[in-house]
Design a protein that fits this description.
The chain is built from five helices and four strands. By secondary structure, the chain is of the alpha/beta class. Helix 3 links the parallel strand 1 and strand 2. The protein starts with 5 loop residues before the first helix and ends in an 11-residue tail after the last strand.
Length: 158
């Protein structure tokens, strides 16, 4: 779980942990990238607007390293221009802030079931505009964002 907002990061970690998931948290994309170098994960949930390394930059790093990891982008601002230029960087799912615990958990379950914990990356140039957009294999319609509400009172965290 990657988010520079400590309260959102804590909220998501607690919700996922309470639902039986093992969760590691990172405060920004750079810390997440470091963790991805030494650990194996089944899913990455990341914000976009973060210091050091943004969500889209983290997706680009995953792509360049050929790391087959499903991604949910949980963000208040979509990097639409980047997704238009580099459609292979579109995550498996998008969760718009604010969202509820139930929406987060349902989307995590859907993405893990649909991707079986892996994502097939198609070779593409790091220069986003130099090639037409390749597709990636995913059972989740990543073009349809999930509109949601982040309200800690809606969670079952007590």
């Amino acid at each position: 779980m990657v988010d520079d907002d400590k309260s959102i990061r804590h909220f998501c970690v607690q919700a996922l942990f309470a639902s039986g998931y093992q969760v590691h948290a990172a405060e920004d994309g750079a810390a997440a990238w470091d963790a991805l170098q030494i650990n194996t994960y089944h899913l990455l949930i990341t914000d976009h607007g973060m210091p050091k390394v943004t969500g889209i930059e983290l997706l680009q790093k995953l792509h360049d390293a050929h790391l087959a990891l499903p991604v949910i982008m949980a963000t208040g601002t979509l990097p639409e221009a980047e997704f238009t230029r580099c459609p292979w960087l579109v995550p498996d799912a998008i969760l718009l802030k604010p969202y509820t615990t139930a929406e987060l958990l349902e989307l995590v379950k859907e993405v893990l079931l649909a991707t079986n914990g892996t994502r097939e990356w198609v070779a593409a140039s790091s220069d986003c505009e130099s090639r037409p957009a390749p597709a990636f294999v995913s059972g989740v319609d990543s073009a349809t964002p999930v509109d949601a509400r982040l309200d800690p009172r809606a969670s079952n965290l007590g």
